[in-house]
Amino acid sequence: MLAVPASLLDIDMIFLDVGEHSPAKQVFAPKSADKAHINGAFSDPTKIRELAQKVDVLTIEIEHVNADVLEKVEPSLPLGVHPSPSTIRIIQDKFVQKKHLRSHGLPVSTFLQIESTKESLEDAMQKVGLPLMVKSRTLAYDGRGNFVIRNQSQIAEALAVLKNRPLYCEKWVPFEAEIAVMVARSTTGEVRSYPAVETIHKDNICHLVFAPLRHKDPVIADRARAVAEAAVKSFEGAGIFGVEMFLLKDGSMYLNEIAPRPHNSGHYTIEACETSQFENHLRAILSLPLGSTAMKVPSAAMLNVIGASSDLEEVKSFASFALTVPGASVHLYGKGECRKGRKMGHVTVVADSDAELRARLRILLDHLPGPKD
Ligand code: ADP
Ligand code: MG
User: Fold this and answer.
1) Which residue in 313, 314, 300 sits closest to 352, CA to CA?
2) Is 86 in the pocket of ligand 1 (CB under 6 A)?
3) Please, which pLDDT band fits residue 212 given cuts at 50, 70 and 90?
4) Nearest bound ligand to the CA of residue 201
5) Which residue, 122, 224, 254, 259, could crosslink 196 as a Cys pair with Cβ 3.0–4.6 Å?
6) Percent of the chain beyond pLDDT 90?
7) Residue nearest to atom 5 of ligand 1 (CA)
8) CA triple 157-163-165, angle to 5 deg
């Protein structure tokens, strides 16, 4: 998705990823041999150095990268590394990230450092209460890395599921809704937020996004944007950031986590906003003027297409069906293998009203692969 606006703006890109035919490489053909994509892990120092020698600016689409090597290569790059390796390092450890946010006076719920022992978890339960959200500090995504302890008898299971991972825990937040705001930050530090959206998760995976956020109190959406902008200002470097938040019944909000990259909650911007999150990411890291973040349609939703099994045909046939729904735009990621729980693509739906949007979305939901609920 980053390769598409890059191509339109005639910006060359070189991707480092394991697969020779990984999704981005399928989209962006190198214009000469010296601009060939690189096959390798984004944690591999040699491969990162190889990439750094070929580009003017280096950026990331996943935070689980080797921040130390990025820091080392940064001085050799004409336009640097964005976002800053220090930002990536803070964010990739969720516990360090939470401490950073708290130390900048930003709203976060109670969290605690813990050890991977029964005693430490019992102590945390005493201090924080139940349910207790136990999280891996690193390498977590789509809920893989979280365990909710609802009663004392689950401690052993939590330790078994999260074994060998560095842990911390959080107080359970009884949120009314989960919301998110994308924020673009330029190399001069200017920030521009997108409209607040509501995100709906299923089995810990983002299922739906509704844009803009509809709330009985119209102040909430602006407040969410202000909190998200303040959070992003606390980090170094340019680029797009996804800010996940919990909205409570009393209208207060807590930051959940920040992604230093394009984010699933911002995919709707491709069809629904004046400038997509991907294009604004490119503009931000290249010191080009940031584009308008305003919506250009009254109502939008994004539905993730998640594998229900290993059958790629299920996904393809859903995608074909989605093409029949007015206002729906289909994105298939070209991932070679389908797996249960794997994000295979998404569909964005736009409409002239919320009612029309819901009607269009209903048809799509009824045809999603997998069990209905
Ligand atoms: P991931 O890295 O997998 O996105 P998150 O920390 O965002 O992990 O957690 C995934 C989901 O779990 C959240 O979107 C939210 O639904 C739920 N969650 C996370 N932390 C809490 C919490 N402290 N209280 C209640 N729900 C939580
Ligand atoms: Mg999350």
Assistant:
1) 300
2) no
3) very high
4) 1
5) 224
6) 96
7) 143
8) 135
